[in-house]
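Deliverable D5.2: sample structural annotation.
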Amino acid sequence: MNLSDAFEMAEARTRDLLPVHSSVDIPGFVTFVLLDGDGARVKAVRWTTNLLTDYGDQYYAAKAITSISPANASAPTAVNGMRLGTSSTAAAKSGTGATIGTVITSSGVPFDTGFPDVVAVGTNLGYYARYQSTWAAGVATSTTINEVALITDYTNTGNSTAANTYARAVVSTLNKSASDILIGLWRHKLVGI
């Protein structure tokens, strides 16, 4: 038996010994607020849970060990914005559903000033990693906004690859007219349980 096999065998045998509550859970929540052109009136609100893709899981794991000695792991490519689409295909960890299904051209936008940030949920309740983006009037005009993704390449006018998509969510259809403003707030809750 080589060293790698020994570690794999030990891990397989100890998995059953771990208490059910010994894990890190990262649920995600997405909220959209659609405002009229001058931002004075709320026209619609949508909220849903999201799914971290396989690349999203890898992203958070890599962020946790970035620059720690002696390996000094490199940081993963950082998320830098969001992108919208019109597909209602269910979110998935990989394959179809792990990226925007039908992209709204040029809908990639950066995070708003002050985001991302980290806020406490409450004493012993974990922390939110929060991401917020705003689609201004004239950006991402569509009668069928159904999906959003956290991405690493918002300047790309087309769609992101799976490797550039860390999370995706599907919401009830939003109709954003050319004069409307859309704000998306994404919260990933990290709590050791």
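Annotation notes: Residues 3-14 form the longest helix (12 residues). The mean pLDDT is 89.
The annotation will be released with the project's public dataset once the embargo ends.
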